Every structure is written in C-alpha cells, then in structure tokens.
C-alpha cells in the first residue's frame, strides 16, 4: 500500500470513528437484542414485546448517542418495519402527527427573535430597569427568559442564543472571569440563577420546551387532553412563585461578591441606544408573537388547533420577509426534532395500542394496592423526579418513563389531569440537579464559573425548594382549578 493510500485509509477510519461511536452503538444494539429474546410475559403480545425492545434500544441510543439523535431515531423507525413488528405505513405515521408539526413550526418561528434582535432588545430593556444590583440583574435575565419562553420551544436557544452571551459579557465587564479566579465576583451567581430560571420557565408553558409536547401526546393517548391554556394556567401560580423565590435563595446560599451593579444598567442603556428604535422587522416579530399567544389561549374556543395557529404565524413571518425560506432550511434543530420526535411518538403510541402500557400499569398498580392514591402518586412522582440523575436529556426521560408512570398513576386512582400536568412540570424541574440533564446545562456549566460539586449541591437544594412550591402551593392552586 502506498503512503498516500495509507493516509487516505487512516483518514477514512478517523472520520468513521468521529461519526459513529462503535462501542456505544454496540451497547445500544445489545440492549435491544437482550429484550427481544427475553420470554414474552403472559398477557403481552409478541409484537408489543418486540416493539418494546426496539423502543428501549432507541431510547438508549438517544441517551448514549452513538450517532446524532435523528440518525438513531431513523434506525429505530426502519427496524420496526424491517423486523415486521409494524407495517411501513405505521412506522412512518409519526411524521403526520399534528403535535410534532406544532413544535417544528415553533422552532422555526423562534429564529425570528434572534435574527431580528428582538430577544436581545428585551434582555437589555430588563437589564436597564432591574440591573442596578446583582440580584436585580439576575431577575432581569429570568424575566427575559419568561417573556421569550412561550414562543421559543428550545431552552438551549433561549439560554445559549439570547441570555448567555449577554450574561457573560456583563460578568466580564465587572472583571468576573473564571480563568482569573474571579468567578465568584458575579458570573457564578448569574450562571446558576439564569440556568435555574430556564428550568422553571420551561415548565410554565407547553411551547417553552421541546419535550413538553411529548408529555401532551402521551397524556392524550391515555385520554387526558391538555391545551396550551390548560398548561399555562396550571403552572402560573407555582411558576411565578418559583421565579421569585429561587433567585433569592441562590443569592443567600451562593452570593456574589459584587452586590451593587449600576454600570450594568448603564451598559444596557448604551446598548439600547446603539440599537436605535425598534425596526419594522422587530415590530412584525412582536405582533406575530402576541398573535400566537392569543391564538393558543383562545384556540379551543375558536376551534383552531395550536398547529394551525403556529403555521399561520410562520406564514406571516415569511410573507413579510422577517424570515426567508433559506432561514427555514437552515434551522437544523427543527428538522432534527421532527425526525426523533416522530420516531418516539410513533413507538410510544403503538406500545399503548398493542396493550403493553395498560399491562404495565396493571402490574405495577398491584404493588401499591391498599395505599391511598395521593400517597402512591407522591411516591411515583418523587421516583420519577430523582431518577433524572440517570438521564442526559429531558427527551429521553420523558420518552421512557412519562407514559408508564402516568398510566400507573391513573390506574391507582389519581385524577388524570393532575397526574399528567404534575409529571409534565416535573419533567422540566428535575433538570435543576446536574450539569448534563438538559440542553442548556453544558452551556452554562461549561463556562467554567461554577465548580461541579457546587453545581450539584445547589441543584439538589433547589430541586427540594421547587418540589415544595409546586406540590404545596401548586397543589392548592390545582384544587381551586378543579384538577383534583
């Protein structure tokens, strides 16, 4: 073999290793094979059990990622048809799901906030008003996220694309840089607070986090219908209280060295001055955003599905050239979500149709026989919450556990709307605990401002505070709303 040929071969092997992690791929396959050949339990069909094997292997693949998520999901879809577990029409049915197209469209619309600069303008506006001290500055970033969250279903985009750059530049303006040993001056406090705020706002709106739509879809498969306004209303009181309490708790537990920050407010005003008055594209983006919120709130009354509202908003942005078709094609996150979402929803739907989920709920329900539904539901909820230590994404956790846990909760007597919404809220709040449990975590933790031990300790303490708020005050609020 010539030297040049050897180099080419070495380069191809290197590229293969970069594209596919063979050990993780082998692990993913072995998990599916192991389940496939386990004797089928009594009361479960062969098709349901084989689909479970493919589903679990797909979820493992989404967690360990031997390939990008979309590629793992596509392999899962193909395997359901290739093995004869489902027909090809059934295997591809997820792509026609209207909830999936709602989230894809919301992803596309969210690009407008970043492209027009409206997201940054909102952040600087809050900074100029609240940024005279470090606690107020933290509340300013949280308020920015709260405003943006109903229309940006990627907490990574909100946190990493809008908030993080401004937050980091503000910290450095005050000489707070981890490489210089000055992280605690301000940056560490702002990083933790903003990250925790992202988890709370993600729980407050259906359209604030991609995997929320999974929860709604799985709840619908079990007869529990959740609209955008149902979700927002139920999360309103506990969510706002968490947003008020958590920054203050962090301020007391992990205070910044710099307390007064008058220069931050001045810097924000200077940025706004440089940006000038709102441009036409920003006004259109703002008007479209308000129209979307109104449509999602009133959708059930005017008989418009949320997907129709979202697609209408997208068309407005295209017709006014706020977004171009090139912008749409470049939004990789939306198209990636379309593929993995379609795979997960399709498999979970047929697991329910083929009887596996009802079988599981009956079997587990027997373990809690004799306990009051409220005690059983709290045990299930806490197990669901703290098992997130073993997951590297909200998506994987919801995909594998939300449906079965909801099924068991309903089987033991928990009111369906209460069980569905509380588990959905927990599906965001549990991201507070680790540096890998949700998309924005690596962005904020990776900045180097906070040590790993501190991140985990604060994360656990905040998880307890959030549970107390959402179960305590939230439970009373949900009683008023008639959820139980």
Give the count of helical stretches.
23
Helices and strands, in order, run as HHHHHHHHHHHHHHHHHHHHHHH
Radius of gyration: 23 Å
Distance between the termini: 74 Å
* Percentage of residues in strands: under 5%
What is the structural class? mainly alpha
- Outline, from the CA principal axes? globular
- Count of strand segments: 0
Q: Could you list the spans in which at least 5 consecutive residues all have pLDDT below 50? A: 1-17
Mean pLDDT: 88
Helical residues, percent: over 70%
Structurally, the number of domains stands at 1
Quick one: biggest sheet?
none
Would you summarize the structure shown here?
The protein is 75% helix and 0% strand.
Structural summary, described in words:
- The chain is globular and about 70 Å long.
- With 484 residues, the protein is mainly α.
- Helices cover 75% and strands 0% of the residues.
- Mean pLDDT is 88; it is low at 1-17.
- The chain has one domain (96-480).
